[in-house]
């Protein structure tokens, strides 16, 4: 069953009413807390417990939708499902000698649930922010923002996760992965879908905060508190840019340039691209 377009934020309900119905936004907050707790457990090295909690979150969201009739709550929960899926796929896929290459194994499969969620919720290109208006003027902005984010992440995680000494073929491969998998898929999840739905449910400010915190905590796999802080701040910046422009290409470009600076250029030139 597809949803009617709800991009205006107007609260609606659908389906046949039952005797028991979940309507409180606290249901969404509870599952957000569950995801955050699962990532904290992962950060603490408790992988099995973390995955168990993520799995229980998936089951809990699935069962809770039986009693939910409020469209905004239901759509927000369906968006949240994407995060445990990312983590479960993340730890299930084979590793690569070059860390950035493992992301194709994570984000390519995520295109499948993304496709069905977008279709099920009847999200239009406008809802998703697919617009190329002002894209020429956005490119310099995305490069600057991407560079600043990359510098912050480099300071946070250090060079250990980066792949210095790569061949030209590897660098081209990374650029393709960054643009067509990492940047696009993450921005679709966190900005076009999750932030969009949480803003409809909680309002612009709260929706931005929730989406940004989730974006940061989902980087707990690096095991660095500073990385979580930096990516949370990056989430605020990207989320604010998206909120003001509703341009998916802008945040995809900024996110992608950040990863290219971080995984390709900085390992070659050093911090500050060798200019500082």
TrEMBL record:
GO molecular function per UniProt: endopeptidase activity; metallopeptidase activity
Spans traversing the lipid bilayer: 27-45, 51-68, 100-118, 138-159, 171-190, 202-220, 226-243, 250-275
Domain CAAX prenyl protease 2/Lysostaphin resistance protein A-like: from-to ranges: 173-261
One GO biological process term: CAAX-box protein maturation
Keyword Transcription regulation assigned: no
UniProt keyword terms in alphabetical order: Hydrolase, Membrane, Metalloprotease, Protease, Transmembrane, Transmembrane helix
Family matches, as InterPro entries: Rce1/LyrA-like_dom (IPR003675)
UniProt name for this protein: CPBP family intramembrane metalloprotease
Species of the source: Methanolobus zinderi
């Amino acid at each position: 069953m597809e949803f009617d377009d709800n991009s205006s934020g107007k609260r609606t309900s659908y389906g046949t009413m039952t005797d028991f119905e979940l309507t409180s936004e606290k249901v969404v907050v509870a599952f957000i807390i569950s995801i955050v707790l699962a990532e904290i457990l992962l950060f603490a090295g408790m992988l099995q417990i973390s995955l168990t909690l993520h799995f229980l979150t998936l089951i809990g969201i699935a069962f809770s939708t039986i009693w939910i009739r409020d469209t905004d709550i239901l759509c927000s929960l369906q968006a949240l499902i994407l995060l445990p899926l990312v983590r479960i796929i993340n730890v299930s896929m084979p590793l690569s000698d070059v860390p950035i290459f493992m992301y194709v194994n994570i984000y390519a499969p995520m295109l499948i649930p993304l496709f069905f969620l977008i279709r099920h919720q009847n999200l239009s290109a406008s809802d998703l922010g697919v617009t190329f208006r002002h894209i020429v003027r956005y490119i310099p902005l995305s490069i600057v923002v991407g560079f600043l984010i990359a510098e912050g992440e480099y300071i946070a995680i250090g060079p250990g996760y980066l792949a210095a000494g790569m061949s030209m073929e590897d660098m081209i491969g990374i650029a393709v992965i960054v643009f067509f998998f990492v940047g696009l898929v993450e921005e679709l999840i966190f900005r076009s879908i999750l932030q969009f739905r949480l803003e409809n449910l909680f309002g612009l400010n709260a929706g931005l905060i929730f989406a940004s915190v989730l974006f940061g905590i989902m980087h707990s796999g690096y095991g660095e508190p500073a990385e979580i802080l930096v990516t949370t701040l990056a989430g605020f910046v990207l989320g604010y840019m998206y909120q003001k422009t509703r341009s998916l290409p802008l945040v995809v470009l900024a996110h992608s340039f950040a990863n290219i600076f971080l995984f390709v250029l900085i390992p070659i030139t050093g911090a500050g691209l060798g200019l500082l």
